């Protein structure tokens, strides 16, 4: 009976803590943190908690590396009774960690300089998915009939009976009487009826910019500008893996410029002749869940399959149904187009001079159009009555003028830019908590940022002060939230977050003032998971983080294509959501939504979970800037890297790295160690967990440690990650790989080898790809592999392999021949510690002779950690000493 009571109490005790843990979360930036950057996590709980300290643990060994008391009690926030901000900025050593406080654990935290790598290129995947016309992702063509415009009236003659009609007379009888009268009369009984005829204008191409398949000129021009500016400021971060059609294969042009030109080509079609400016194709009638673009044959009023409206910018209210917009002029749309064309002329000048000249002409003409017609051109509402309610236009003209000044250096454009900039010195949305849909657009006044780059000190200082006013206001408001994010939670809230982060980053870049770095860091953290929902606002990134999996967009709903790289609209105030959500929405359970702000990872939530087209382009620019400002490790300069793995160290030094791997065989261990001692050199040994668990190898490991050789991980169970014939095909997922690596490290620790002393990894079989090397970097581990072209790895080949068998003398001679032709500076020679008994010709018996021959040629030998300069003092250890 006593035992029953004890176990019942124990069960209740455990259940209490499990239930408590389910109501408590530690939110982090899932993308990661820079080693020297600000690092904060936010603990939120629906229960009253008292937190005074927390510990940091190595994610690969579970060992505690630091105990910190940098805890701020925020108090209550929304529906959370306890909220604490955990500052772990003191941890600067690259690696993977987790936070533990009481019974609460954070997800894995990554600290390294590579967290932004590939992120901006990744966003281009989303834009390729959004292409209209030919789509390289789905391999289909859509909307080949875009579009119809240019209403003309013509007279159609119809026979009409003008005499009073007896309501009891049949229609057939009326027509007969009418025809009879027309034959008897000299004047035919007709009236003139005006019938509309639509001109066909080629506006195929471009991108679908919304939930459905509408193409919006304002959003497209802004996206193009962000892409071009991202390239102009940070060209080194973009790759070339796709051609101009968006298909795999490089074409000598960075992918960012291929995509930007896809948008520019469509914008040119939207301005076919000077004075004829169009701004939208289609309307929201195609926002039907499950409708695919190639099957969009809806009747837009002209018969099925005849095409969609292309709306001309008139500067007057427009709308086909009960709702009309509030357009007042052309300056907003003309300014956006002019900005994109002017920057395009600058970027493409050295690649295609004629094309650049044509863009400059378009920019100049459109700018003048904007000057002549002040006001805004808003998007055209369809049946839903929803449209982009842009109220401002001076910022568009400021950007166009400042960009034309950079292109032509004409003083009139500079003066215009200053005048327009003074009309809107601050971003209005920063000073409010709610906005209408796209009320102040674009969200970032890039014209101001253009003006702080010019050499005129008076102009520069004036607009620096304006930007400071923006940032100071936002910085003052941040204390209202433990996440330090207080931008408007209106529809499209992620756009505001990206915009403010961009302003912080560019202000810091161009002024050198880091006063708002804390705000910038918090905004970035919010975007990648440090928010109440613990979800990244970027679809599919980070790769193994919690990201939107069921976005509200037709590509996902109809074809289950995940729009990887897209920025999600983001959370909104509950009142905004309830007012705006469509009737197809179904509720999902999310505890964090019990407060005043809501978000749903739900395909029917077209308010918070829809990809933001222009926001994705703005995020691309921000991440490219972040990626470019990181001081990349010097090993990327000194070393030769293939698929993220180091295959050669500094080629200017006549140094060789000897590497030996151990798994199933160790018969050569004694020979190798003896040869190394004889020649007084150090080598690197990579061993599996199975090798370490084998008690017969204990003396070998002890001897390696005593002699000062490097000993590192080689996987726990000789886990093959890829194959030599299909290196791009993964045989494992990230969790499987990390679990295996973790077990390898545990066995190294059991053998007296510290994790911090074994941060270089050699993949099983030497097989790996970009994903494997990236996963290693996430955990602070460097991947190395043998130098290609050297057949030392064939020392385990056996006679039954026939043409793939190499004798020891063949291997020996090939290495010396390679040395004579190409040299071995910085190269890695990889051998095995043993071989199957089928191979009687053991190469390890020739190691001593090989070393002697290479020494005579002037080579010296280093371990991998010596060559990669990995023997630095740990910053974590320094912190613990303090």
Structure in words:
37% of the residues lie in helices and 14% in strands. The chain has 882 residues and is of the alpha+beta class. The strands form 10 sheets. Strands 3, 4, 7, 8 and 9 form a 5-stranded antiparallel sheet that branches. Strands 23, 24, 25, 28 and 29 form a 5-stranded parallel sheet that branches. It has a 4-stranded antiparallel sheet with strand order 1-2-6-5. Helix 2 (119-129) runs antiparallel to helix 16. It starts with a helix and ends with a helix.
Topology:
Layout: H1 2-22, E1 24-27, E2 40-45, E3 54-58, E4 64-68, E5 71-77, E6 80-87, E7 95-101, E8 104-105, E9 109-111, H2 119-129, E10 134-135, E11 140-141, E12 148-159, H3 171-184, E13 190-200, E14 215-216, H4 217-233, H5 255-269, E15 278-281, E16 310-312, H6 331-347, H7 353-372, H8 394-408, H9 411-423, H10 446-451, H11 457-477, H12 493-511, H13 517-527, H14 554-559, E17 567-568, E18 572-573, H15 574-580, E19 597-598, E20 611-612, H16 613-629, H17 635-638, E21 640-642, E22 645-648, E23 655-662, H18 669-679, E24 684-687, H19 689-693, H20 698-707, E25 710-713, H21 734-750, E26 760-761, H22 770-778, E27 782-783, H23 808-822, E28 828-832, H24 847-856, E29 860-861, H25 864-867, H26 875-881
Parallel strand pairs: 23-24, 23-28, 23-29, 24-25, 26-27
Antiparallel strand pairs: 1-2, 2-6, 3-4, 3-7, 5-6, 7-8, 7-9, 10-11, 12-13, 14-15, 15-16, 17-20, 18-19, 21-22
Helix pairs in contact: 2-16, 4-5, 4-6, 4-16, 6-7, 6-8, 7-8, 8-9, 11-12, 12-13, 12-16, 18-20, 18-24
């Amino acid at each position: 009976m006593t035992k029953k009571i004890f176990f019942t109490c124990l069960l209740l005790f455990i259940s209490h803590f499990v239930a408590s843990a389910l109501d408590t979360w530690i939110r982090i930036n899932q993308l990661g943190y820079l080693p020297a950057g600000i690092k904060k996590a936010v603990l939120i709980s629906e229960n009253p908690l008292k937190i005074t300290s927390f510990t940091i643990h190595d994610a690969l060994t579970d060992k505690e590396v630091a105990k910190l008391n940098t805890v701020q009690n925020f108090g209550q926030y929304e529906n959370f009774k306890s909220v604490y901000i955990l500052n772990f900025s003191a941890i600067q050593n690259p690696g993977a960690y987790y936070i533990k406080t009481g019974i609460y654990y954070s997800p894995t935290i990554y600290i390294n300089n590579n967290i932004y790598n590939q992120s901006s290129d990744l966003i281009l995947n989303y834009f390729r998915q959004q292409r209209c016309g030919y789509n390289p992702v789905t391999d289909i063509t859509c909307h080949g009939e875009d579009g119809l415009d240019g209403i003309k009236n013509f007279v159609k003659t119809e026979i009409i009976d003008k005499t009073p009609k007896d309501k009891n007379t049949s229609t057939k009888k009326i027509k007969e009487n009418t025809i009879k009268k027309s034959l008897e009369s000299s004047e035919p009984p007709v009236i003139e009826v005006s019938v509309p005829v639509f001109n066909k204008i080629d506006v195929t191409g471009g991108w679908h910019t919304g939930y459905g398949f509408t193409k919006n000129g304002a959003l497209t021009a802004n996206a193009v500008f962000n892409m071009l500016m991202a390239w102009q400021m940070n060209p080194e971060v973009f790759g070339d893996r796709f051609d101009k059609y968006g298909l795999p294969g490089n074409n000598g042009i960075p992918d960012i410029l291929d995509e930007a030109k896809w948008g520019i080509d469509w914008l040119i079609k939207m301005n076919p002749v000077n004075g004829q400016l169009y701004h939208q194709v289609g309307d929201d009638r195609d926002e039907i869940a499950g409708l695919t673009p190639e099957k969009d044959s809806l009747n837009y009023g002209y018969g099925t399959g005849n095409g969609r409206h292309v709306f001309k910018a008139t500067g007057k209210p427009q709308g086909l149904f009960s709702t009309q917009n509030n357009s007042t002029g052309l300056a907003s749309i003309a300014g956006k187009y002019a900005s994109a064309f002017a920057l395009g002329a600058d970027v493409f000048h050295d690649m295609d001079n004629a094309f650049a000249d044509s863009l400059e002409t378009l920019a100049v003409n459109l700018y003048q159009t904007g000057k002549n017609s002040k006001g805004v051109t808003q998007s055209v509402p369809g049946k839903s009555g929803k449209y982009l309610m842009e109220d401002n236009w001076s910022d568009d003209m400021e950007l166009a003028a400042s960009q034309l000044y950079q292109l032509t250096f004409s003083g009139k454009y500079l003066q215009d830019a200053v005048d327009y900039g003074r009309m809107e010195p601050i971003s209005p949305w920063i000073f409010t908590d709610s906005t209408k849909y796209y009320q102040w657009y674009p969200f970032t006044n890039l014209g101001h940022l253009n003006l702080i780059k010019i050499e005129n000190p008076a102009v520069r200082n004036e607009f620096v002060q304006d930007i400071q006013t923006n940032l100071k206001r936002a910085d003052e408001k941040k204390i209202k939230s433990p996440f330090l994010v207080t931008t408007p939670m209106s529809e499209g809230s992620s756009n505001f977050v990206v915009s403010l982060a961009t302003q912080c980053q560019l202000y810091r870049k161009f002024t050198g003032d880091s006063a708002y770095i804390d705000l910038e860091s918090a905004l970035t953290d919010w975007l990648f998971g440090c928010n109440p929902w613990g979800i990244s606002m970027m679809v599919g990134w980070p790769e193994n983080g919690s990201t939107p999996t069921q976005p509200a967009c037709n590509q996902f709903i109809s074809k289950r294509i995940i729009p990887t790289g897209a920025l999600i609209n983001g959370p909104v105030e509950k009142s905004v959501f309830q007012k705006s959500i469509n009737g197809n929405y179904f509720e999902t359970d999310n505890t964090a939504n019990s407060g005043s702000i809501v978000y749903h990872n739900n395909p029917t939530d077209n308010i918070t979970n829809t990809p933001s087209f222009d926001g994705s382009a703005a995020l691309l620019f921000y991440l490219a800037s972040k990626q470019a400002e990181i001081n990349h490790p010097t090993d990327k300069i000194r070393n030769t890297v293939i698929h993220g793995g180091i295959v050669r160290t500094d080629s200017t030094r006549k140094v060789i790295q000897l590497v030996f791997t151990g798994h199933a065989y160790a018969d050569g261990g004694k020979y190798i160690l003896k040869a190394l001692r004889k020649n007084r050199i150090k080598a690197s040994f990579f061993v599996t967990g199975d090798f370490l668990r084998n008690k017969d190898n204990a003396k070998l490991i002890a001897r390696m440690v005593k002699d000062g050789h490097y000993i590192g991980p080689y996987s726990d169970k000789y886990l093959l990650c890829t194959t030599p014939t299909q290196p791009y095909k993964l045989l494992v997922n990230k969790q499987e790989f990390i679990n295996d690596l973790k077990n390898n490290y545990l066995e190294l620790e059991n053998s007296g080898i510290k994790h911090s002393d074994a941060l270089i990894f050699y993949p099983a079989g030497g097989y790996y790809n970009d994903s494997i090397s990236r996963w290693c970097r996430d955990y602070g581990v460097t991947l190395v592999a043998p130098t290609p072209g050297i057949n030392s790895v064939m020392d385990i080949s056996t006679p039954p392999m026939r043409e793939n068998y190499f004798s020891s003398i063949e291997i020996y001679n090939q290495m010396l021949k390679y040395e004579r032709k190409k040299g071995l500076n910085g190269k890695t020679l990889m051998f095995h510690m043993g071989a199957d008994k089928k191979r009687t010709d053991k190469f390890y018996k020739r190691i001593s002779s090989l070393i002697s021959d290479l020494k005579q040629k002037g080579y010296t030998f280093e371990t991998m950690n010596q060559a990669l300069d990995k023997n630095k003092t740990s910053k974590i250890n320094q912190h613990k000493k303090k």
